């Protein structure tokens, strides 16, 4: 059976997505179909494909509703290879912008909405000029794999961080080394991470902290999508890792420069432990029609 999808292309700091609405859960695409949509030569092109579905209309969402009945909408996220991922920090800002623009959601600046994801419910707050998402609790995985990447002169130790999806953050020697890494080839982790990982390469700005705000630069190789211009959960992982390495007294507010722009990261105390929040823009750039 063929379906005609009304699709929208959007991005957050250059991390781009193809979005479509399927409120009642009637359009279940295969992994191959999602990959074909994300293909930059034969499809629309994007780092991910996002289906906007009511939580009640997808099993993973229905499971959430028992505890969080307010989470009406679920972000069904897939990477460019068509594989499902738990969470996307840039994607969820674009997702909420999309729901507002399509009339599915009424959210004035200064207000928040809970969104279902495979990593759990995430609160998204509308700002005057973008969105902020509470990425929830984070944790060090305890893994410190050695990371090898093409044109990275030596293997460097990474720090495993779980933000609902898996990250490994690697500090590199400076801007030249950062720019020189060839991320068209998947970085190798030793030991291999069974679920795969998004790998962030970071350098501190000079000075690391200005006006109480930590500053880093980052490039990322995303699991299932390759090098992207930005990764929101990756930016949060990178700031958490650098704060961890910098030790006591380092700030809880960070600016993360990625090839596609700048993201804000903030760590804060919540009732169930420390949370990390991500802020940044969310743009919708064109609409189209697609037959799948
Ligand atoms: N770009 C996203 C992360 C998307 C999922 C990731 N590739 C994974 O497989 O975990 C972000 O902005 O967080």
TrEMBL record:
Substrate binds at residues 15, 79, 89-90, 165, 198, 222-223, 232-233. Pfam families: DAP_epimerase (PF01678). Its main location: cytoplasm. GO terms for cellular component: cytosol. Pathway: Amino-acid biosynthesis; L-lysine biosynthesis via DAP pathway; DL-2,6-diaminopimelate from LL-2,6-diaminopimelate: step 1/1. Keywords: Amino-acid biosynthesis, Cytoplasm, Isomerase, Lysine biosynthesis. Gene3D superfamilies: Diaminopimelate Epimerase, Chain A, domain 1. It is an enzyme of class 5 (isomerase). The record marks 167, 222 as: Could be important to modulate the pK values of the two catalytic cysteine residues. InterPro entries: DAP_epimerase_AS (IPR018510), DAP_epimerase_DapF (IPR001653). One of its GO terms (molecular function) is diaminopimelate epimerase activity. It catalyses: (2S,6S)-2,6-diaminopimelate = meso-2,6-diaminopimelate. It is found in: Cytoplasm. GO terms for biological process: lysine biosynthetic process via diaminopimelate. Its EC number is 5.1.1.7. The active site is at 88, 88 (proton donor), 231 (proton acceptor). The keyword Cytoplasm applies. Belongs to the diaminopimelate epimerase family. HAMAP family: DAP_epimerase. Catalyzes the stereoinversion of LL-2,6-diaminopimelate (L,L-DAP) to meso-diaminopimelate (meso-DAP), a precursor of L-lysine and an essential component of the bacterial peptidoglycan. Homodimer. This is Diaminopimelate epimerase. It comes from Microcella alkaliphila. The lineage of its organism: Bacteria, Bacillati, Actinomycetota, Actinomycetes, Micrococcales. The gene is dapF.
């Amino acid at each position: 059976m063929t379906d005609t999808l009304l699709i929208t292309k959007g991005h957050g700091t250059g991390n781009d997505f193809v979005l479509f609405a399927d409120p009642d859960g009637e359009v279940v695409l295969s992994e191959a179909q999602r990959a074909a949509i994300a293909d930059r030569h034969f499809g629309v092109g994007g780092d991910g494909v996002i289906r906007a579905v009511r939580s009640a209309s997808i099993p993973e969402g229905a499971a959430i509703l028992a505890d969080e009945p307010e989470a009406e909408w679920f972000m069904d996220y897939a990477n460019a290879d068509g594989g499902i991922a738990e969470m996307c920090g840039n994607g969820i800002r674009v997702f909420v912008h999309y729901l507002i623009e399509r009339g599915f959601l009424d959210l004035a600046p200064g207000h928040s909405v809970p969104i279902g994801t495979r990593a759990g419910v995430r609160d998204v707050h509308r700002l005057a000029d973008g969105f902020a998402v509470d990425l929830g609790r984070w944790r060090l995985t305890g893994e410190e794999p050695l990371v090898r990447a093409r044109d990275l002169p030596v293997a460097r130790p990474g720090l495993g961080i779980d933000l609902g999806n898996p990250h490994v953050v690697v500090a590199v020697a400076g801007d030249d080394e950062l720019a020189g890494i060839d991320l068209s080839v998947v970085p190798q982790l030793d030991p291999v991470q069974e679920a795969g990982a998004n790998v962030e390469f970071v350098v501190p700005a000079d000075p690391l902290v200005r006006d109480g705000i930590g500053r880093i630069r980052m490039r990322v190789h995303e699991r299932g999508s390759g090098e992207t211009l930005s990764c929101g959960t990756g930016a949060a992982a990178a700031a958490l890792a650098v704060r961890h390495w910098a030790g006591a007294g380092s700030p809880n507010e960070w600016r993360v420069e990625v090839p596609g722009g700048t993201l804000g990261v903030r760590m804060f105390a919540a009732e169930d432990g420390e949370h990390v929040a991500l802020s940044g823009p969310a743009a919708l750039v064109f609409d189209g029609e697609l037959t799948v």
